């Protein structure tokens, strides 16, 4: 059982935005519905009531002017004092036939009210409705100009409502942001712990459950899973230590007994078989041991790969190594060195020239090992990662190895959260591509 089966990618930061959107969207919809109700019902109703009040005052004034034409100055003074209306009488004036009126809400409401109450030709100028509205009414032999203060037709509750709506929205948005940040923080911490554990790093002691009840349940499940995996790895390591001791002890006795025998072709053949058995047992134990207990440390991967390539070059292997700058990454140095060493060894077994490249590719660090050998058929490339599977069916370790090199290499890479792929090499042979997340 491998840890990678339990590991998810680190929680993307857009998750916080989506979570916040879940809370903000109902708030925005509520504000839009409230605004629609206000403008469609409240504002229309208030504006209509104000317009009918003005129309009623003008109806009263025009009736008073008709009944008492000699008291027009007193009527105008009383209207100014009691109603706040400025009245100007223009004798002999006639309104144009075309009505000059805007198509705004105030104009429509006021025009409707005047048509119902005054029933005379009129014109409305509401270009400065917040300060004043000018109404011209056609009388029998004159035009009555009425200057209405803007406050009598324009309700300040509109701005107050908008200010309250925007203000409360900002406050609720801030509260929602703080709430979601506190809820998402433990999820991110849990995601980081899972990612670290999946890449072979020590996440520390038990993850402390925090946040919502569901997050605490997930954290508790992660702690139980981590303990089970650690216990399984420890039990496997202890078992393999015993197996190693049990197998190596009789082999050591055989080697001692062979040393006491006279040298002969038969004894030399037995010594060779014993040596091969030791190598095979070491290979099996290396594969089964997996990542072992080696801790992850921040390592300069370019220097590590260059050092491995240099050792092979000093051994007479034709190898060209190219690294792109200095790249630091968290690795189990010994396990990763064994992985790259296995890939180079596999290439050297079948090819004459090897090319090793290390560099950053997007969100990954890649190490490629190319050769000019015969390569591996595409339908066999996934099979060669199976333990003990070899393209050479002879089972001769000298010609095909133990069949564990690629299996060990992929196991090591996946322990680090990456993957190992086999592809066609531009040099005509096989390319082994190691991809590690940054």
Largest sheet: 5 strands, mixed
The tally of strands reads: 11
Structural class determined from secondary elements: alpha+beta
Task: Compute the separation of the termini in Å.
Answer: 24 Å
How much beta, percentage-wise?
15-25%
Mean pLDDT comes to 79
Strand order of the largest sheet: 6-8-9-11-10
* Domains, number: 3
- Listing every helix as H and every strand as E from the N terminus to the C terminus, the arrangement reads HHEHEEEHHHEHEEHEEHHEE
Helix content: 55-70%
Radius of gyration: 44 Å
**Total count of helical runs of at least 4 residues:** 10
Which spans of ≥5 residues are poorly predicted at pLDDT below 50?
1-13, 393-397
Shape: rod-shaped
Question: How would you describe this structure to a colleague?
Answer:
This protein is α+β, with helices and mostly antiparallel strands and 438 residues long. It has a 5-stranded mixed sheet with strand order 6-8-9-11-10. A 4-stranded antiparallel sheet has the order 1-4-3-2, with helices on one face. Strand 2 and strand 3 form a beta hairpin. It folds into 3 domains: 198 residues, no CATH class; 83 residues, Signal transduction histidine kinase, dimerisation/phosphotransfer (DHp) domain (Helix Hairpins), CATH 1.10.287.130; 144 residues, Heat Shock Protein 90 (2-Layer Sandwich), CATH 3.30.565. The N terminus is likely disordered.
Short description:
With 438 residues, the chain is α+β, with helices and mostly antiparallel strands. It has 10 helices and 11 strands.
């Amino acid at each position: 059982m491998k840890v990678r089966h339990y590991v998810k990618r680190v929680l993307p930061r857009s998750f916080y935005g989506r979570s916040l959107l879940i809370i903000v969207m109902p708030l925005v919809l509520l504000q839009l519905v409230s605004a629609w109700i206000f403008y469609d019902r409240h504002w229309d109703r208030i504006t209509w009531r104000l317009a009918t009040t003005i129309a009623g005052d003008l109806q009263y004034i025009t009736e008073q002017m008709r009944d008492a034409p000699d008291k027009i100055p007193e009527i105008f003074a009383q209207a100014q004092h009691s109603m706040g209306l400025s009245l100007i009488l223009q004798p002999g004036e006639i309104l144009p036939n075309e009505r000059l009126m805007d198509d705004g809400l105030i104009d429509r409401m006021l025009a409707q009210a005047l048509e119902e109450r005054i029933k005379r030709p009129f014109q409305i100028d509401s270009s400065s409705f917040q300060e004043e509205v000018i109404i011209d009414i056609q009388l029998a032999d004159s035009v009555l100009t009425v200057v209405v203060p803007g406050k009598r037709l324009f309700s300040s509750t509109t701005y107050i409502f908008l200010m309250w709506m925007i203000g409360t929205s900002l406050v609720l948005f801030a509260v929602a942001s703080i709430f979601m940040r506190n809820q998402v923080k433990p999820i991110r911490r849990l995601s980081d712990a899972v990612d670290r554990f999946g890449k072979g790093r020590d996440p520390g002691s038990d993850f402390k459950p925090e946040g919502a009840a569901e997050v605490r349940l997930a954290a508790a499940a992660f702690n139980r899973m981590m303990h089970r995996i650690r216990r399984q790895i420890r039990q496997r390591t202890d078992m393999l230590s015993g197996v190693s001791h049990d197998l190596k002890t009789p082999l050591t006795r055989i080697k001692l007994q062979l040393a006491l025998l006279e040298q002969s072709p038969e004894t030399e053949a037995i010594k060779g078989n014993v040596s091969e058995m030791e190598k095979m047992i070491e290979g099996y134990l290396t594969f089964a041991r997996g990542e072992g207990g080696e801790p992850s440390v921040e390592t300069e991967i370019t220097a590590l790969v260059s050092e491995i390539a240099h050792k092979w070059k000093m051994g007479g292997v034709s190898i060209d190594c190219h690294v792109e700058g200095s790249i630091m990454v968290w690795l189990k140095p010994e396990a990763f060195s064994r992985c790259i060493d296995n890939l180079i060894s596999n290439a050297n077994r079948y090819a004459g020239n090897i090319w090793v490249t290390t560099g950053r590719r997007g969100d990954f660090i890649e190490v490629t090992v190319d050769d000019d050998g015969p390569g591996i058929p595409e339908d066999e490339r996934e099979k060669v990662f199976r333990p003990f599977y070899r393209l050479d069916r002879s089972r001769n370790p000298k010609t095909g190895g133990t069949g564990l090199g690629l299996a060990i290499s992929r196991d090591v890479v996946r322990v680090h959260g990456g993957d190992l792929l086999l592809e066609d090499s531009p040099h005509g042979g096989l390319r082994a591509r190691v991809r590690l997340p940054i």
